[in-house]
Amino acid sequence: MEKIKTGSSKWIKTKGPRYQLFSWQNGYGAFSIGVSNSEALKQYIAGQKEHHKHRRFEDELRSLFRKYQIRYDERYVWD
Questions:
Q1: Stretch 59-75: mean pLDDT
Q2: Has this prediction a pTM greater than 0.85?
Q3: For residue 71, what pLDDT band results from cuts at 50, 70 and 90?
Q4: How far apart are CA 39 and CA 46, in angstroms?
Q5: Start and end of every Transposase IS200-like domain (predicted)?
């Protein structure tokens, strides 16, 4: 992840002045899906901006943690 975050951060900064202050958050999360769910994921990504006008990212992530019984500590999830 460190290499991906470093490389993509350097790349985006070459795309113009508006990206010069870009930085990733400290941590990261990774999720996987089955091939049978790939179309739903594409639709989610396409509508993500509108979706998060109605549901905060933090609330959605907490919901996923509960749904899939993932234990987490709030102190380490948010920057």
A1: 92
A2: no
A3: very high
A4: 11
A5: 1-48
Rounded-to-integer distance, Cα 6 and Cα 20, Å: 14
d(CA 5, CA 73): 23
Mean pLDDT of 51-75: 91
Contact (CB, 8 A) for 48 and 55: no
In contact, 22 and 9? CB cutoff 8 Å: yes
CA atoms within 13 A on the CB side of 71: 0
The amino acid sitting at 12 is I
Question: What is the C-alpha to C-alpha distance for residues 2 and 18, in angstroms, rounded to an integer?
Answer: 23
Residue 47 to residues 11, 43, 57, 58, 72, Cα–Cα distance (Å): 25, 6, 13, 17, 27
Residues 60, 39: Cα–Cα separation, whole Å: 19
